[in-house]
């Protein structure tokens, strides 16, 4: 375990991604202690002030502290992205296992996955949020449904290979229940690709949540999110560019850290890919 951890963090890019993500996680956890002001406190006389010692990231059109709002927005981004990863992983694994293991379900489930993947992710997410209604829970459900087919395809392909292996046939001959075969002999062998795909889903979900909030169909506008901050700041982009700089940079660094960690996990699972790259 220790050797694996060392090899994982021996890559500088992976270590950098871990450090950046840890900063965001700690900022989200200790937001009330780090943020100097309330993210919703308005101070109209101090609206659109440039970054200074009093307001490190400046203030927005309502006089709210941009630094405080950026810190609190990390909570929502991480919460939504984490929820999407959990939801999409459970749904995707179930669909992939059923499609790959049960021959009768393979064709209808594969066509369903193909149909879902034929739509651009953001358009499918917008349609689902519009149908369910804009809220944090519905955004998680919509994005979870959107990204589940990606993992389901990975799980299905691997399950198709595993179900033909001798030890699976031996387990069937011994009379083991189907759920036990799927859980103990199939799912455990899929842990590595599932973990890698989930890390990339985390990054995609964070970017998608920001996109939905920017378009006004995501989390409630009353909650500070990076996408909402960008959407409101674009009206003052020329006169007060800091309103878009800081939430935009937060999105860039957060997504970058997750991508770097995902690359590290992929290289750890299959070192041949690292050599090819």
UniProtKB/TrEMBL annotation:
Source taxon at top rank: Bacteria
Membrane protein topology class: Multi-pass membrane protein
Localization per Swiss-Prot or TrEMBL: Cell membrane
Pfam annotation, one family: BPD_transp_1
Record-annotated ABC transmembrane type-1 domain positions: 78-262
Transmembrane segments: 15-37, 78-102, 122-148, 242-262
Keyword terms of this UniProt record: Cell membrane, Membrane, Transmembrane, Transmembrane helix, Transport
CDD domains xrefs: TM_PBP2
Membership in a protein family: Belongs to the binding-protein-dependent transport system permease family.
Entry protein name: Peptide/nickel transport system permease protein
Highest classification ranks of the organism: Bacteria, Pseudomonadati, Pseudomonadota, Alphaproteobacteria, Hyphomicrobiales
């Amino acid at each position: 375990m220790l050797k694996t951890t060392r090899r994982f963090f021996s890559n500088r890019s992976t270590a950098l991604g871990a450090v950046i993500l840890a900063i965001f996680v700690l900022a989200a956890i200790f937001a009330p202690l780090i943020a100097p002001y309330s993210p919703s406190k308005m101070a109209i006389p101090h609206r659109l002030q440039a970054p200074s010692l009093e307001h490190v990231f400046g203030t927005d059109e309502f006089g709210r502290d941009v630094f405080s709002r950026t810190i609190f927005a990390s909570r929502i981004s991480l919460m939504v992205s984490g929820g999407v990863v959990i939801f999409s992983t459970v749904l995707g694994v179930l669909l992939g296992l059923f499609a790959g293991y049960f021959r009768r379900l393979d064709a209808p489930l594969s066509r369903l996955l193909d149909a879902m993947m034929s739509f651009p992710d953001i358009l499918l997410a917008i349609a689902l949020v519009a149908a369910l209604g804009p809220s944090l829970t519905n955004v998680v459900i919509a994005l979870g449904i959107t990204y589940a087919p990606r993992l389901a395809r990975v799980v299905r392909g691997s399950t198709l290979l595993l179900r033909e292996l001798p030890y699976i046939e031996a387990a069937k001959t011994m009379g083991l229940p189907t759920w036990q075969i799927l859980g103990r002999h199939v799912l455990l062998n899929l842990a590595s690709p599932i973990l890698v795909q989930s890390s990339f889903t985390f990054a995609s979900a964070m970017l998608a949540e920001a996109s939905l909030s920017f378009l006004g169909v995501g989390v409630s506008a009353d909650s500070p999110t990076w996408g909402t901050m960008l959407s409101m700041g674009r009206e003052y982009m020329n006169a007060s560019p800091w309103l878009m700089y800081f939430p935009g940079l937060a999105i860039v660094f957060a997504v970058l850290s997750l991508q770097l960690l995902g690359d590290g996990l992929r290289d750890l699972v299959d070192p041949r890919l690292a050599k090819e790259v």
